[in-house]
């Protein structure tokens, strides 16, 4: 079973790599001010030093029909997160779809809440 899960994770990471995606753990950004995230994975569609810019992106995502939230990092970034999920496979697929719809820029990434 462990071998199967490792193979699946390797396949998903390869799929993400082909989609020019990145996975980031919050610790790499100095940690979160947020105490608890809703899900293990979220797609970050923008990260801003200016809260007003983050709020504009948040409104645009919500207006487009995507559940969005702002995550505050200790390094001062305000990230706009969409499509929280417990499934890496689902998150990778959604990332590709969001890029195709213009919601997520090419440098959007997946946040992993471990």
What topology does this entry show?
Layout: H1 2-18, E1 23-24, E2 41-48, H2 51-63, E3 68-72, E4 78-85, H3 88-101, E5 109-112
Parallel strand pairs: 1-5
Antiparallel strand pairs: 2-4, 2-5, 3-4
Quick take:
The protein has 114 residues and is of the alpha+beta class.
Q: Find the count of extended strands (DSSP E, 2+ residues).
A: 5
Estimate percent helicity.
25-40%
What's the number of helices? Answer: 3
Low-confidence stretches are: none
> C-alpha Rg, in Å?
14 Å
Mean pLDDT rating: 78
- Strand residues, percent: 15-25%
Strand order of the largest sheet: 1-5-2-4-3
Biggest sheet descriptor: 5 strands, mixed
The secondary-structure class comes to alpha+beta
Straight-line distance between termini? 21 Å
Relevant terms:
single chain, 114 residues, alpha+beta, 5-stranded mixed β-sheet, 24% strand
Outline the structure in words:
By secondary structure, the protein is an alpha+beta fold. Helix content is 39%, strand content 24%. The chain has helices spanning 2-18, 51-63, 88-101, and strands spanning 23-24, 41-48, 68-72, 78-85, 109-112. A five-stranded mixed beta sheet has the order 1-5-2-4-3. The chain is globular, with a radius of gyration of 14 Å. The two termini are 21 Å apart. The model has no long low-confidence stretch (mean pLDDT 78).
């Amino acid at each position: 079973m462990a071998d199967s899960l490792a193979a699946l994770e390797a396949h998903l990471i390869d799929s993400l790599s082909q989609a020019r995606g990145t996975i980031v753990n919050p610790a790499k950004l100095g940690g979160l001010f947020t105490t608890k995230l809703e899900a293990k994975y979220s797609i970050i569609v923008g990260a801003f030093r200016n809260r007003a810019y983050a709020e504009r992106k948040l409104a645009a995502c919500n207006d487009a029909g995507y559940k969005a939230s702002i995550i505050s990092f200790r390094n001062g970034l305000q990230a706009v997160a969409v499509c929280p999920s417990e499934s890496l496979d689902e998150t990778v697929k959604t990332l590709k779809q969001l890029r195709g719809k213009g919601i997520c820029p090419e440098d959007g990434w997946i946040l992993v809440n471990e």
